[in-house]
Amino acid sequence: MTSTFRSRPAASPIRAIDVITKKRDGHELSAAEIESFIAAYTTGGIPDYQASAWLMAVVLRGMSRTETAALTNAMLHSGEVLDLSEFPAAKVDKHSTGGVGDKTSLVLAPLAAAGGLVVPMISGRGLGHTGGTLDKLESIPGFKVNLSVAEFRRVLSACGCAMIGQTAEIAPADRKLYALRDVTATVESPYLICASIMSKKLAEGIDALVLDVKTGSGAFMKKEEDAIFLAELMVETGERVGKKMVALITDMNQPLGTHIGNSLEVIEALDVLRGSGPEDLRQLCLELAGWMFYLGGIESTTELGKLKAERLIRSGAALETFRTMLKLQGGDEHVIDDASLLPRSKHAMQIPSPKTGFISEIDCQAIGTASVILGGGRAKKEDSVDPSVGIILHRKLGDAVSAGEPLCTIHYNSETQADEAAALLQKSFRIAEAAPAKKKSLVHRVIGGDITSR
Amino acid sequence: MTSTFRSRPAASPIRAIDVITKKRDGHELSAAEIESFIAAYTTGGIPDYQASAWLMAVVLRGMSRTETAALTNAMLHSGEVLDLSEFPAAKVDKHSTGGVGDKTSLVLAPLAAAGGLVVPMISGRGLGHTGGTLDKLESIPGFKVNLSVAEFRRVLSACGCAMIGQTAEIAPADRKLYALRDVTATVESPYLICASIMSKKLAEGIDALVLDVKTGSGAFMKKEEDAIFLAELMVETGERVGKKMVALITDMNQPLGTHIGNSLEVIEALDVLRGSGPEDLRQLCLELAGWMFYLGGIESTTELGKLKAERLIRSGAALETFRTMLKLQGGDEHVIDDASLLPRSKHAMQIPSPKTGFISEIDCQAIGTASVILGGGRAKKEDSVDPSVGIILHRKLGDAVSAGEPLCTIHYNSETQADEAAALLQKSFRIAEAAPAKKKSLVHRVIGGDITSR
User: Which of A11, A209, B91, B353 is 20 to 30 A (C-alpha) from B65?
Assistant: First the structure.
């Protein structure tokens, strides 16, 4: 026996099983452990079955703010991070957690760009009962959302905004993890949602981000406290890496505006860009634009930012920026002046109110689901969407209605789908005898946005 | 529009994602959900990544007694369940949760069979720092543990006991799930451990089961409360399907007996069958045998069962039953009379005590690990074991020792392995100046075993 002591390797590699065990037991993972796990998973070094066990442990054990930031960072750096420093203007984006009838992105990108900001917007497709910006844009004949990074820069440079889908180069870890979360019941975690959203948004090379976190019957976060928790998490995660951040907790107890469905929502967004459109949608666009101008340093208060947004709509500058972007991305610009060039459903039918009274409640998720049933969204990821179908609301919360008057109109191509959607829609409106109390405000709360103290 | 109401399918199939979600959210799964999930996983209808997410949810959310029973049942019926009703005698087995130096199975199978019981023992291999019955048996030249079910019945019929490994037909769900748990940090769950053990034991077609649940520094359950929890779970799960059950919570704060290692443990088991052997091992064998005779209806009290076991050893009947089984399973019966026919290590070295005093603490897991390092166990599942190596203890808890006297002897074939094991063993004994207080009893507690009231 020569020696009873033997040296051990100085630094042992991080093992997947140890990272899973540590999170399972509720301990805080180090940034190195998280980075190593995510990098190995993205490149195939860790199999799906280990990643899904870890994801479930994260869902049930949670993460600290430091862990959430490390996870965001690891996912961000799993792919390309755009460098937009060639653009002297502030790069500001807006992101919504998803709702029904939420077409604000279509208004905000050209509106903010018309006011001097650069808006490098990378969006997603419809998810569950909510619509997706890419699906809406693709209802415009010719519009391409799959640009190369070089094309993306060219459009940005020409008109200050561009709207594309996630590229293969951006946050590949998120794409792989999201596909796994989707089939392992690990989507619903504020930490994982935060890292997924923030890694993609930070990859855009932005200086500031306005978050629209929805809460209510049509939102993913039904409870306001959950929406606030997620908003705080995202604001802090962005601020940790020096981004200017704000989150508006906004109401999703009824659809935003009156149009739900892809081409229908393009029509309504164009209305807002023209200075008309429903008041709730218009107000939310102005609020969000006000924050974008404020965080981007264009105006010294959000109120001034809002006034600027109103002027840009009134002057037609916002609509013209949309037209330029649309042309640069291959779309048919004539749709702007002639909505009949957009895909239109073959049939329409009205859903009449069964009684006289006031709309006291709307099952907003059911309305989103009805639109999916019509073909406007996807039941499975592989499904294609029908751009022409959807729902137009004639009554919203607090409105009076007489028996027989239409609550909404279904735009459809298939009788079977229409029947199913109609049955759902008939159950989605609650009608009370008395007029309801004061309406809930559209913006429930503002989180973050304090850029003066920094 | 013909109708706004459409019928839905009467019973929708159970979806994996819904079962995962339900467990994630802490709800109780129905037996149908558990059975459907396990059946689909076993036959490849559910991928590993969904099963591992579900397993982690089970680890962190737990299971009710009803769920645990349903899981056990689903795993049991994933494969063949032996029907031993052709044997008129009571079928009784013993199972240990794993320890260091635990060779009681080698004594109990022939001892209980000699007393008139049928013992259809299906055992496992070494796991982590603990030894496995199959590895020990295979150190006997020629001994075959992979019998067909027909051969198994033939041996049982000839001598009342047979000792084999898990066949492909028995609980395939457990084999597949265990392999997944092993790499996803989902082994440590009393519910999953219970279902894994009980599904395999119930597949043996037994009437009664004596469980030896270890607790202490060398056990998987270091904390006694965890051992008790698991024991209660297993006893209740067995009783729910009409089995007579008892669990003894026994001490594993030091190895059982003095011999650790495969052929070394066969030697010590033969000593006990001959009426000698260390007192702790001998006493535990008698206790467990007493319970087997009591639960099997051979004796009216466990005390009488214990006396019967003593008589069967004294008369040589137990040893002769072992000899018969050994021959029937292809082993060289001469090892019984000449231990030198068993594999022997090339070298041996003693670990001297660094000081004079009393053994106050033994790191029992470290001693098991030292045996694995010598080659007596597996670091990875694919490793083969060296049957000849191991450790013989010369001092146990409470024993006096003088400086320089041997604490234990290492039996080894490789200098490098011996060096590493020696370094570990030197740190595994704590020596105090004063004699320790009264020793802990070997059997801490008895759970279940109340068969009179049923």
Answer: B91
Instruction: Verify whether the Cβ–Cβ distance A2 to B186 is below 8 Å.
Output: no
Interface pTM, i.e. ipTM: 0.86
B92-339+443-453: CATH topology: Pyrimidine Nucleoside Phosphorylase; Chain A, domain 2 (3.40.1030)
pLDDT tens track, chain B, 454 positions: 333 333 334 456 789 999 999 999 999 999 999 999 999 999 999 999 999 999 999 999 999 999 999 999 999 999 999 999 999 999 999 999 999 999 999 999 999 999 999 999 999 887 788 889 999 999 999 999 999 999 999 999 999 999 999 888 889 999 999 989 989 999 989 999 999 999 999 999 999 999 999 999 999 899 999 999 999 999 999 999 999 999 999 999 999 999 999 999 999 999 999 999 999 999 999 999 999 999 999 999 999 999 999 999 999 999 999 999 999 999 999 999 999 999 999 999 999 999 999 999 999 999 999 999 999 998 777 788 999 999 999 999 999 999 999 999 999 999 999 999 999 999 999 999 998 887 778 999 999 998 764 4
Query: Which chain A residues contact residue B407 at CB under 8 A?
Result: none
Nearest CA in chain A to B351: A4
- Specify whether A274 is catalytic: no
Q: Which of B20, B49, B60 sits opposite A48 (nearest CB)?
A: B49
Shortest CA gap B229–chain A (Å): 19
Nearest CB to A53 within list B2, B55, B418: B55
Cβ contact A24–B60 (<8 Å) = yes
B-chain residues within 8 Å CB-CB of A41? none
Query: What's the whole-model pTM score?
Result: 0.87
Please indicate whether, in this complex, the C-beta atoms of A184 and B20 are within 8 angstroms of each other.
yes
**CATH number of this structure's domain B4-62:** 1.20.970.10
For A81-103, letters b (16+ CB in 10 Å) and e give ebebeeeebbbbbbbbbbbbbbb
Query: Could you confirm whether A6 is annotated as catalytic?
Result: no
Cβ–Cβ below 8 Å for A415 and B1: yes
Dihedral sign (CA B201, B204, B210, B214): negative
Catalytic-residue membership of A175: no
B27 contact residues in A (CB cutoff 8 A) = none
Q: What is the largest CA-CA distance in chain A?
A: 98
Question: Which residues of chain A approach chain B closer than 8 Å at the C-beta?
Answer: 1-6, 17, 20-21, 24, 47-57, 59-61, 180, 183-186, 349, 415-416, 418-420, 422-423, 426
Structure tokens that stand for A107 in this block:
């208004």
CB contact under 8 A, B2 and A415: yes
Q: State the CB neighbour count (10 A cutoff) for residue A276.
A: 12
- Domain B344-432: CATH superfamily is Pyrimidine nucleoside phosphorylase-like, C-terminal domain (3.90.1170.30)
Task: Say whether A282 is catalytic.
Answer: no
- Test the B interface: residue of A27, A56, A373 with most B CBs within 10 Å: A56
Supply the angle between the helices A364-371 and A415-426 in degrees, to the nearest 10: 180
Catalytic residue, from A23, A91, A94, A95: name it. A95
Closest chain B C-alpha to A18 CA, distance in angstroms: 8
- Which token pair is A286? 């102005």
